[in-house]
Amino acid sequence: MKIALVHDYIKEYGGAERVLKTLSSLFPEAPIYTAFRVKNSTADKEFKGKEIVESSLSPILKIWKLYSPLRFLIPIIWGRMDLTKYDLVITSCSWYITRGFKVGKNTKVIAYCHTPPRWLYGYETSVGFTKYWPVKIYAAIVGHFMRIYDFNTAQKINFWIANSKNVSDRIWKYYRKEAVVIYPPIETEEIKKTVKGIQKKDFYLIVSRLVGAKGIEYAVNIAQKLKINLKIVGESHGLSNIQDSLQKTNQNNIEYLGLVTDPEKYKLMAEARAFLAFARDEDFGMTVVEAQAAGTPVIAFNGGGFRESVINGKTGILVNEISEKSLQEAIEKIEKTKWNREEIINHTKKFSKERFIKEIKKFIIEVSR
Q1: Under DSSP, is residue 351 helix (H, G, I), strand (E, B) or coil?
Q2: Cβ count near 166 (within 10 Å)
Q3: Which percentage of the chain shows pLDDT scores above 70?
Q4: What secondary structure does DSSP assign to 251-271, as a single string?
Q5: Which has the closest alpha carbon to 243: 206, 210, 207, 209?
Q6: CB contact at 8 A, 15 and 164
Q7: Which residues lie closer than 8 Å to 309 by C-beta, 6 or more apart?
Q8: What pLDDT is attached to residue 177?
Q9: Left (φ > 0), alpha (ψ -120 to 50) or beta: where does 126 sit?
Q10: 305 contacts 284 by C-beta, under 8 angstroms
Q11: Are 333 and 325 within 8 A, CB to CB?
Q12: What is the mean pLDDT of residues 333-360?
């Protein structure tokens, strides 16, 4: 089969891009079609040597961060892409919709959905610009037409895969489409090898894209009040300014590390007393599973995809509210509990990269018959 991959854009390297990288390794001859590609960005470095085809509008989308305010051009961006020569198209889709491209009469399209666009359906997003009334009016007008486009293009997808049960429910809610759940690929074996013999240290850890919807500012404020040592790893995404505020933070117990390599990240995860994840409605949350694969318990908000990846009391603690009191209680439980490192690690096998590859291959074979 002639196969093509489609992805939002190539810029930051996060969970969605890790899925794309695994898909690209499975189908090394498949070109990657995308809205735009920022050369030498963290994501671009991961796809060196791959054939990447940008949209015709990519030059203007790459000016500063115009891809966000110019999202009303999404129908044109994808509508101009001609994928009619391919037998199978796999689209890795989330906030840039990433559907509506031209396909052939016999082309089958699989959507691996990280989430329906959060900004279209009232979920917390990276930057709360809608608090300003001109932006709120703009968002309401653009959002109305984009929801129609989002729904209509969703009906043309042949098969849906969701990255979690949480997202599968959203796909049904907004598109009325059934989706098979295939959890994202986690490097569980690689993590296990990397962290062997590493001892715990006195700090807590956050690894995340530095955006508003991840609860990072809550964590920083609470860590300052409780005087716990907190390390933060990640890079800014879109129009978020959280990275700037973190770099200005002058607190002895808060350390912003920026981007680190995967081995360094896994080492930090293994050393941490616990991994913190406070997004209120996370789509899935790959770093939460990575932390558990490193043998570290998680303190996570009791919502979204975290409910699928954290076993309360066994591999971490789920909190019902993000507050100083609830975090203090969770930290006390973390300190008092004798966590079974092997039990935490073994729990993550169901999210392994090997399992992802096996399930994706099986799915493609079944739908291609």
Answers
A1: helix
A2: 21
A3: 93
A4: -TTEEEEE---HHHHHHHHHH
A5: 210
A6: no
A7: 284, 285, 288, 289, 292, 351
A8: 98
A9: alpha
A10: yes
A11: no
A12: 97
- Structural domain including 86 reads 3-185+352-367
Q: Quick one: average pLDDT of 184-201?
A: 96
Output the pTM of the full model: 0.92
What DSSP element (H or E) covers 240? Answer: none
Residues 193 and 267 in one domain: yes
> Quick one: pLDDT band at residue 106, thresholds 50, 70, 90?
very high
Same domain, 332 and 202: yes
Pairwise CA distance, residues 111 & 103, whole Å: 14
Residues 176 and 266 in one domain: no
**DSSP assigned state of 197:** T
Distance between CA atoms of 269 and 262, rounded to whole angstroms? 10
Number of folded domains that form the chain = 2
pLDDT band at 131 (very low <50, low <70, confident <90, very high): low
The total of other beta-carbon atoms located within 10 Å of residue 313's CB is 11
Give the per-residue pLDDT at 208.
87
